[in-house]
Amino acid sequence: MINENTWLKIKMYSQAKYTDSTIDEYLQFDLESLVRYEYINGQIYPLLGESYNLKIISENIFSRLRTQLYGTNCHVFASDMKVRIEPINAFYYPEASVVKDSQDRDTYFKSRPCLIVEVISPITERIDRIEKLYSYRQIPSLQEYVLVHQSEMKIEVYRKTYGNNWLLETLAEETILKLQSVEVEMTMAEIYEDVEFE
After folding, report:
1. Average pLDDT of the segment spanning 112-138
2. CA 26 to CA 37: how far, in whole Å?
3. How far apart are alpha carbons 91 and 109 in whole angstroms?
4. List of residues 6+ apart from 45 with CB closer than 8 A
5. Which residue of 11, 38, 39, 152 is surrounded by the most CB atoms within 10 Å?
6. Which residue from 111, 105, 95, 96 is spatially nearest to 23, judged by alpha carbons?
7. Across the strands, what pairs with 148?
8. pLDDT at residue 106 tops 70
9. 140, 125 contact by CB (below 8 A)
10. What is the mean pLDDT of residues 176-191?
């Protein structure tokens, strides 16, 4: 477990494009930009390019979440919706997120997701597993954080338990991903449909 001082020292991606920016400046800049940017405590970082596998996996997960949650009080968002982590002044673009809270109504970001999914690569693995794990766990409404590997059939689910503790479940081939936060199940075959491993 890393503390906040350590987290603030972690460099994300490469170098910040802009520093000492306010949240309002970031939101306006990101809204007008053709490239997506994430924000961490005044620093603005461009997102890395998305691989073929990342796009396919993200679309597979989003479409299955959207289909299975149709007609419920859950709202499913793809990678073009930001998530705000208010306690640490950060905004990220996860591959998918689900919001149940009807009061979470901001047009350009969501603050109360119950589920967040990130698709990781060797380049983003440290960020997703350390930095974003720490950051997302600061969201009181979050119940599950899912890491999906794009270079192999492997999924890690961080699930909140009683007392604000988090347990890790690791899934491999021939298993079923059971998302307790939204009562959705999907097979590994569905998640990795059309994915081309090297």
Report:
1. 93
2. 8
3. 8
4. 12, 13, 14, 16, 17, 37, 38, 39
5. 39
6. 111
7. 119, 155
8. yes
9. no
10. 97
Average pLDDT over residues 82-107: 95
**In whole angstroms, what is the distance from residue 16 CA to residue 18 CA?**
5
